[in-house]
Amino acid sequence: MLQNIGIPGLIIILVIALIIFGPSKLPEIGRAFGSTLKEFKKATNDLVNGDSKEKNHSEDVKQLQAIDNSKSKTGS
Fold first, then answer.
1. pTM here?
2. Which residues lie below 8 Å from residue 26, measured CB to CB, with a gap of 6+?
3. Using one digit for the tens of pLDDT, what is the confidence trace for 49-62?
C-alpha cells in the first residue's frame, strides 16, 4: 500500500496535516512520531538480540559449570 505513495502523495498528506494541526503542532507531532519509531526499533532489536544473548549466556554458564566440575575433580 505504501509503495504506491510518491512525492505528490506525500505533499498532499503534509498539506492536509498542516491544515488540520496547524504549523505550531507539526514539529511536536514529528518529534513524537520519531521518538515512537525509535523506541519501537530499539524494542525490536532488544527482542531479537535478547534471544541470542540468552542462548549465549546459557552456553557460558554450562562452560563455567564444566570448568568448575573439572577443577573440583582434579583438586579432590
1. 0.47
2. 17, 18
3. 876 666 666 777 77
